[in-house]
C-alpha cells in the first residue's frame, strides 16, 4: 500500500486508456512482507498486470532499481534516506539490506538473469516488449 502502487481498478483504467505500466523492481515495494524476495515476485507482478493490461502494455520500471551492491556506502545511505522521503515506510526500509536486490538479481551486471527468468514465462515477442519495446510503442502513440 503506497501512493505509487496501483489497484486492479487503476490498472483497468490504464487498459481503457491504452496506457502502459512499468513494474518497479524494488523488493520492499513489490514484496514488502517477504524476507528474501526473488525475481519470481517481479514475474508475479508482471503476470498480474499483463492479465489486465495485456502483455503489450507492461514493462520493467527501472527508474527506481534497488541499490546495487557495487554502489559506494555513502550512495547507499543517501538512497535509503531518499526513498524514505518519497513515502516508503522507514521501519520496513531499515529492516532490509538496501542493496539486497531480488534474489539472483543483485547488481546491474545480473541483468541477463532477468531476461532468462522472463524467457521461462513469456513469449519472445512479449519479452522484447517487457524489456523496452512496449514503452517505446506507448511513447510513440502518446506524442
Q: Secondary structure elements and their pairing?
A:
Blueprint: H1 8-16, E1 21-24, H2 27-30, H3 39-53, E2 58-61, H4 73-85, H5 90-95, H6 111-119, H7 124-142
Parallel strand pairs: 1-2
How does this structure look, described?
With 143 residues, the protein is mainly alpha-helical. Helix content is 52%, strand content 6%. The chain has a two-stranded parallel sheet. The protein is globular, with a radius of gyration of 15 Å. The mean pLDDT is 88.
Distinctive features:
143 residues, mainly alpha, two-stranded parallel ribbon, 7 helices, globular
Q: Name the structural class.
A: mainly alpha
Order of SSEs: HEHHEHHHH
Q: Strand portion, in percent?
A: 5-15%
Number of helices: 7
What is the end-to-end distance? 31 Å
Low-confidence stretches: none
Spatial extent as radius of gyration? 15 Å
Strand order of the largest sheet: 1-2
Reported for the largest beta sheet, the result is: 2 strands, parallel
The rough form would be described as globular
User: Averaged pLDDT, please?
Assistant: 88
Number of strands: 2
Percentage of residues in helical conformation = 40-55%
Amino acid at each position: 500500500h503506497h501512493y505509487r502502487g496501483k489497484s486492479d481498478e487503476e490498472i483497468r483504467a490504464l487498459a481503457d486508456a491504452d496506457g502502459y505500466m512499468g513494474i518497479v523492481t524494488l523488493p520492499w515495494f513489490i514484496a514488502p512482507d517477504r524476507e528474501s524476495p526473488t525475481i519470481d515476485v517481479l514475474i508475479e507482478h508482471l503476470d498480474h498486470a499483463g492479465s489486465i493490461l495485456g502483455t503489450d502494455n507492461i514493462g520493467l520500471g527501472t527508474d527506481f532499481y534497488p541499490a546495487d551492491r557495487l554502489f559506494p556506502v555513502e550512495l547507499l545511505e543517501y538512497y535509503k534516506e531518499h526513498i524514505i522521503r518519497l513515502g516508503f515506510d522507514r521501519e520496513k526500509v531499515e529492516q532490509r539490506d538496501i542493496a539486497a536486490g531480488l534474489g539472483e538479481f543483485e547488481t546491474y551486471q545480473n541483468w541477463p538473469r532477468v531476461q532468462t527468468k522472463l524467457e521461462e514465462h513469456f513469449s519472445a515477442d512479449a519479452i522484447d516488449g517487457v524489456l523496452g519495446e512496449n514503452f517505446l510503442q506507448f511513447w510513440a502513440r502518446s506524442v
